[in-house]
C-alpha cells in the first residue's frame, strides 16, 4: 500500500478536510464510531457504544433528528432526515456533515439533506 493510500480516510478523500461536495452523510457497514464534521477545523468522533436513542420530528418548514449519546446530544436540522434512521439503527452511519450552502437549493432526490448540526455536551 502506498503512502498516498495510507493518508486517505474511509471516504477515499485526503485527511480530515470537509470536501465541498453535495454529500452530507455516508453509510458503511459495521462502523464502531460516528464522525461528525462541523466545519473544516472541527470534527467529533463518537463511539456507537455510547448511543442511547434517536428521535425524528417533522415540522412544516424543517425536520430535526436528535441523536442522544451518553454524554452528548447531536441535533441535525434539514429535510428527509428519516432516511438516516435505518442506517442509525444498524450503527452504519460512517459520517455526517452539514451540506455546503451552495448545494442546498439543488434537488437531492430522495436523499437526506443536513443543513445544520449542533453538538451539545450533556455534562454541562
What does this structure look like?
The protein contains two helices and eight strands, in the order αββββββαββ. It is mainly beta and 124 residues long. It has one domain. The protein is globular and about 35 Å long. The termini are far apart.
**Tally of DSSP helical segments:** 2
By DSSP, the count of extended strands is 8
Helix content: under 10%
Helices and strands, in order, run as HEEEEEEHEE
Which strand-content bin applies to the residues? 35-45%
Structural class: mainly beta
Question: In summary, what is this structure?
Answer:
With 124 residues, the protein is mostly beta strands.
How would you summarize the topology of this molecule?
Elements: H1 3-6, E1 25-27, E2 33-39, E3 42-47, E4 51-58, E5 63-69, E6 72-79, H2 85-89, E7 93-96, E8 113-121
Parallel strand pairs: 2-7
Antiparallel strand pairs: 1-7, 2-3, 4-5, 5-6, 6-8
Provide key terms for this protein.
124 residues, four-stranded antiparallel sheet, globular, four-stranded mixed sheet, 2 helices, 8 strands, mainly beta, single chain, disordered N terminus
Amino acid at each position: 500500500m502506498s503512502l498516498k493510500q495510507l493518508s486517505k480516510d474511509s471516504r477515499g478523500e485526503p485527511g480530515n478536510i470537509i470536501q465541498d461536495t453535495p454529500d452530507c452523510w455516508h453509510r458503511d457497514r459495521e462502523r464502531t464510531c460516528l464522525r461528525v464534521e462541523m466545519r473544516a477545523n472541527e470534527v467529533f468522533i463518537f463511539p456507537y457504544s455510547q448511543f442511547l436513542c434517536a428521535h425524528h420530528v417533522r415540522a412544516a418548514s424543517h425536520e430535526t433528528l436528535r441523536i442522544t449519546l451518553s454524554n452528548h446530544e447531536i441535533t441535525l436540522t434539514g429535510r428527509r432526515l428519516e432516511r438516516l434512521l435505518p442506517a442509525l439503527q444498524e450503527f452504519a452511519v460512517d459520517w455526517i456533515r452539514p451540506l455546503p450552502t451552495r448545494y442546498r437549493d439543488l434537488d437531492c432526490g430522495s436523499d437526506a439533506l443536513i443543513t445544520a448540526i449542533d453538538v451539545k455536551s450533556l455534562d454541562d
